[in-house]
Design goal:
By secondary structure, the chain is of the alpha+beta class. It has one domain (about 5-80). The protein has helices spanning about 35-45, 70-80; strands at about 5-10, 20-25, 45-50, 60-65. It has a four-stranded antiparallel β-sheet with strand order 1-2-4-3. Strand 3 (about 45-50) and strand 4 form a beta hairpin.
């Protein structure tokens, strides 16, 4: 998405009465929780999550909910403009 790696994770519960969920992870960003990129992601509903296989204290922005793709896209557009 806009030249960045994005992971799409879907969760389908074993109980079909429970709702499934989707989230997008902007994987090219290995950032700290208080970084300016994370503050920009929070503007679009992103939350910081410590990334697996990363050094301690580093993570990436995660966007969840029904419009996670739109929020992630808006974040990447705004980030690209700021560069």
């Amino acid at each position: 998405m806009l030249g960045q790696k994005v992971f799409l994770e879907s969760y389908f519960p074993w109980n079909f009465f429970e709702k499934s969920s989707v989230r997008m992870i902007a994987a090219n960003f290995t950032i700290r929780k208080g970084s300016k990129e994370m503050k920009l992601a929070e503007k679009f509903g992103g939350v910081w999550e410590e990334g697996y296989y990363m050094d301690e204290g580093f993570g990436w922005p995660v966007f969840g909910g029904d419009d996670c793709d739109q929020h992630c896209f808006e974040f990447l557009k705004e980030w690209r403009k700021s560069k």
